[in-house]
Write a structure and sequence with these properties.
The protein is an alpha+beta fold and about 190 residues long. It folds into two domains: about 60 residues, lambda repressor-like DNA-binding domains (434 Repressor (Amino-terminal Domain), Orthogonal Bundle), CATH 1.10.260; about 110 residues, Jelly Rolls (Sandwich). The chain is built from five helices and nine strands. Strand 1 and strand 2 form a beta hairpin. Helix 2 crosses helix 4. The longest helix is centred in the first third of the chain and has 12 residues. The protein is globular and about 45 Å long.
């Protein structure tokens, strides 16, 4: 599904105009219009801001699965309803952002529980984006293959295969792949924020 078409569908479902969404997400009305008309591709950072402005998780821009307020409240009241889920390897939800060299695969069945579990594969030179991210919660990740540099709250950490990192998500954070090999990681994030 195309991001622009999906964004427009979610915006209309929420009853928002482009101007109202612009105020909520801090991106210009003209930029949002170009995204909806598939004239420009939003960065990971812009996708996150758009999803936040719409009141959805970012995965909603890449999937038909939606998490509206009613579903969220049901999940929060009874988080163990249908508590055992299996995600088959070939049925994972996959996100590939425009102009990105990173593939994100959701290992948890959805974002309706208390934890998000992600697998990423990033090509050499890949980064999480030009600006650090920050949000509520906690993150813990392990590098399965390759080398990555993480910057958390202005401090840099080099992680090799088998190294892991934990940090409060409220600290500004970003990453980049180091060297000529792909990097593969697995992440646990709570509460789900992607």
């Amino acid at each position: 599904m195309k991001i622009g078409r999906r964004m427009k569908s979610l915006r209309k479902k929420k009853g928002l105009t482009l101007e109202e969404l612009s105020k909520k997400c801090g991106l210009s009305k003209s930029f949002l219009s170009q995204v909806e008309r598939e004239q420009t591709l939003p960065s990971v950072y812009s996708c996150k801001k758009i999803a936040d402005g719409l009141g959805y998780h970012i995965i909603s821009l890449f999937s038909d699965e939606e998490l509206d307020e009613k579903e969220q409240s049901i999940s929060q009241k009874n988080p163990y309803n249908n508590s055992v889920k299996v995600v088959e390897k070939n049925k994972r939800k996959i996100m590939i952002f425009p102009d990105s060299k990173t593939v994100y695969e959701l290992l948890s069945p959805n974002l309706r529980r208390k934890i998000e579990f992600l697998y990423t594969k990033a090509e050499p030179g890949s980064t999480s984006g030009p600006k650090p991210a920050f949000h509520e919660g906690e993150e813990c990740g392990i590098v399965l293959k390759g080398s990555m540099e993480f910057e958390v709250d202005g401090n840099k950490y080099l992680l090799e295969e088998g190294d892991s990192i934990y940090f409060p998500s409220s600290l500004p954070h970003r990453w980049k792949v180091i060297g000529n090999s792909c990097a593969e990681t697995v992440w646990a994030i709570t509460p789900p924020s992607f």
